[in-house]
Design a protein that fits this description.
20% strand; six-stranded mixed β-sheet; 36% helix; Creatine Kinase, Chain A, domain 2; alpha+beta; 445 residues
Length: 445
């Protein structure tokens, strides 16, 4: 047993931990959990814990249901909201087949496999997400409209406000679990919050995001509120995105930085952006995986709708933030389409794969957009060579279905399940009769 596993076992004993939760996600990014007794941990580290994979969306079929969850000791953290009474902790798991090989259905494995491909090229992939979400007064019930927890706006400072108290408590919990937060503030919509996680390697960031969503929901419930990561809960207010900053490092050197180059951006960085732009429509079904995601991607309110890039341009799909001359290693790019309800393991894998494809194939970066993309006419955008992002889940799935990049990155199993699941979601949505239709058509048709 390695040193990290020994450390976990000692900590469990010293802290009197009574419940250890083993976490993993299904293909859609839903967090799954099984609690085991401390006495089972040594066996879990060496052999894993068996479970019925056929009961997990997208994992396996009934006649081959046995699967193993093997905890990753590097992900050990105490659960701070279980501070009263018997202590609890969590570890993320890798999902294995009975013979000990990685499961092709495990989203965490999909990301690890893509990170290995990057490592073979000499790169480490770092991400830094800006996570937006709404704080609501009520958990939604059928027939009810969501009610924001406050009526404030972007960067508003509210004395003794619920939102500020919520962010403070959530950040303290995250930091108690070893998850560093860089910024937090009130976002543009009433009740809308943003908390930005500090840069980390992409696998750690994905694990942190899964923890982040649960922490926010736990803190909200303690305060009599509800935290929702739905991409667009209000027609009249901004959607919740997850603008993701990315960079590649070669050892301790930022591969995106080149002193004296335009925007201090190296050829590797420019080709990475070109890869993202080329393949953005193909990966959108995963970075924006819900029917509701496309109510946000209509342009305006800092949500991109067209494939383009720009320097410090928040209307572009890819933004290159201003780099400080003295801080070359902070050079990065920002991908602005993902929403905060995505499966981060699959999303990061595809964002990395698209960028690597641009590097490997030597894609040329087109001219950047300096104008406000939302203010241009569609004719002007087309004349500038911009392509639209998919405008519905149906369009996104059609583009994804023909994508070799997405199929190769996700693997046949995850690709096929994801596609079938989302096609079924679209068909279910397509048959619904909305309140808008009733209000508009019933009185006059």
């Amino acid at each position: 047993m390695d040193r990290q596993a020994d450390f976990v076992l000692r900590t469990i004993e010293e802290r009197g931990i009574r419940f250890v939760r083993l976490w993993f996600t299904d293909v859609l990014g839903t967090l799954k959990s099984v609690a085991i007794a401390p006495a089972e941990m040594e066996g879990a580290f060496s052999e894993g814990i068996g479970f019925d994979g056929s009961a997990i969306d997208g994992f396996t079929r009934v006649y081959e249901s046995d699967m193993i969850a093997k905890p990753d000791p590097s992900t050990f953290a105490l659960l701070p909201w279980r501070s009263e009474g018997p202590g609890a902790a969590r570890l993320f798991c890798d999902i294995l087949n009975p013979d000990g090989t990685p499961s092709i259905a495990d989203p965490r494995h999909v990301l690890k496999r893509t990170l290995t491909q990057a490592a073979e090229l000499g790169y480490t992939f770092y991400t830094h997400p800006e996570v937006e979400f709404y704080l609501l007064e009520n958990r939604h019930r059928a027939g009810e409209l969501p009610v924001p927890a406050d009526l404030y706006g972007y960067f508003d400072n509210t004395p003794h406000g619920q939102s500020a108290d919520f962010r403070r408590e959530a950040i303290l919990m995250l930091e108690a679990m070893g998850i560093s937060v860089e910024f937090s503030h009130h976002e543009g919509g009433p009740g809308q919050q943003e908390i930005d996680l500090r840069y980390a390697d992409a696998l750690t960031t994905a694990d942190n995001l899964m923890t982040f969503r649960l922490v926010c929901q736990e803190v909200a419930l303690e305060q009599g509120l509800f935290a929702s990561f739905m991409p667009k809960p209000f027609r009249e207010h901004p959607g919740s995105g997850m603008h993701t900053h990315m960079s590649l490092f070669q050892g301790d050197t930022n591969a995106f930085y080149e002193e004296g180059a335009p925007l201090q951006l190296s050829k590797i960085g420019r080709s990475f952006i070109a890869g993202l732009l080329m393949h953005a429509p193909e990966i959108t079904a995963v970075t924006n995986q819900w029917v509701n995601s496309y109510k946000r991607l209509v342009g305006g309110s800092e949500a991109p709708a067209w494939v383009c890039w720009g320097h410090n341009n928040s209307s572009a799909l890819v933004r290159v933030p201003m780099a400080k001359p003295s801080k070359g290693n902070s050079t990065r790019i920002e991908f602005r389409s993902p929403d905060s309800a995505t499966n981060p393991y699959l999303a990061f894998a595809l964002m990395l794969a698209a960028g690597l494809k641009g590097i490997e194939q030597g894609y040329e970066l087109p001219a950047g957009a300096e104008e406000d993309v939302w203010a241009l006419t569609e004719t002007e955008r087309v004349a500038m060579g911009m392509k639209p992002l998919p405008t519905s889940l149906r369009q996104a799935l059609d583009v994804m279905e023909s994508s070799e990049l997405v199929r190769e990155t996700l693997g046949e199993h995850v690709f096929d399940f994801f596609l079938r699941n989302k096609q079924a979601e679209w068909e279910d949505y397509r048959s619904q009769v909305s309140q808008w239709e009733l209000d508009r058509y019933l009185p006059r048709l």
